[in-house]
Design a protein that fits this description.
Elements: H1 2-21, E1 45-52, E2 57-64, E3 69-73, H2 80-89, E4 93-98, H3 110-116, E5 121-125, E6 134-136, E7 141-144, E8 147-153, E9 162-166, E10 171-175, H4 193-204, E11 212-215, E12 225-226, H5 227-233, H6 241-248, H7 259-267, H8 271-280
Parallel strand pairs: 3-4, 4-5, 5-6, 10-11
Antiparallel strand pairs: 1-2, 2-3, 7-8, 8-9, 9-10, 11-12
Helix pairs in contact: 2-3, 3-8, 4-6
Bound molecules: fe (ii) ion.
Length: 281
């Protein structure tokens, strides 16, 4: 009987470890090594992934279904009306429009959303150097209803990049710090391959293996990844620091077409565009 109880306790300890962080499922490049246990969304947590096909940007609408408070992550100015319609149709109140960083490839929708949905406040990291109603500091909590995201600095693509983590749902919004099987470029806006490598390895790859990662973009039709998948299969960040720096310093990418327009506008969180429009009226 005592042997049986001992075995049962060993099994429960193992299962506990598995459910706590899924780490025991990874580490080897064997078949299924990237497959982790799924953490389901809470019933009162709304998650919508929206897309801009021009810049391949994902915008995320999150909300507390019970108290109706909502936030948007990385809205795009051309889609502000779409976002407003969804928010209104679902009977939600947009509390914050949040950016993961100062984008160079599109203008943020935060400024336009503030005028479309009065009461909404813009957010971006203090370290981004951009203006917003609320400048976020490391470990700040973005609260909506009973839910919240924690602000984790992940610089390297830009100086002010942050990742937003929701531990209860087992998800993180990585911006351009980590893309699915890729990462943001590091050759402008204070970017640095060494800093990005450290950010991802110390702040994203240290999250539980089964956390789902939602990036700011995907150019190949993929929508989500996990910590385990990226640790194994990210063709850049699974390499050594030396190899990563070599890869990033030899991308030879063209300058983004939108940068001249997007960065000045995003420096004021898109309010630039709103003022221009208001001036026309
Ligand atoms: Fe970016």
């Amino acid at each position: 009987m005592s042997i049986l109880l001992n075995r049962l306790s060993q099994l429960l300890t193992f299962t506990g470890q598995l459910f706590r962080n899924g780490r025991s499922l990874i580490g080897n490049r064997h078949r299924g090594g990237a497959l982790t246990l799924h953490i389901p969304f809470s019933k009162d947590f709304l998650f919508r992934q929206l897309f801009d096909p021009v810049s391949s940007t994902y915008t995320y609408l999150l909300a507390d279904i019970i108290n109706k408070e909502a936030i948007l992550i990385d809205p795009v100015i051309e889609w502000a009306e779409r976002d407003k319609t969804i928010i209104e149709e679902l009977g939600l109140n947009l509390k914050y429009a949040v950016n993961t960083h100062m984008h160079a490839d599109h203008i943020t929708g935060t400024g336009r959303l503030k005028s479309l949905l009065p009461g909404c406040r813009s957010m971006i990291s203090h370290s981004s150097g951009a203006e917003a109603d609320i400048l976020l500091e490391p470990r700040d909590r973005i609260k909506f209803g009973r839910h919240y995201l924690v602000v984790i600095p992940t610089p390297g693509h830009t100086e002010g990049c942050v990742t937003y983590v929701c531990d209860e749902q087992g998800i993180a919004f990585t911006g351009d710090a980590l893309l699915i099987r890729g990462c943001g470029r590091t050759d402008f806006q204070g970017g640095s391959p060494e800093v990005l490598y450290k950010s991802v390895h110390e702040n994203i790859f240290t999250l539980p293996a089964n956390y789902r990662l939602y990036p700011a973009h995907d150019y190949n039709g993929r929508t989500v990844t996990t910590v385990a998948e990226e640790k194994l299969y990210n063709p850049r960040l699974s390499k050594s620091l030396k190899e990563f720096v070599e890869i990033m310093n030899n991308l030879n990418l063209p300058y983004p077409k939108m940068i001249e327009k997007a960065v000045p506008a995003n420096k004021v969180c898109g309010v630039f565009e709103v003022n221009k429009e208001e001036g026309k009226q």
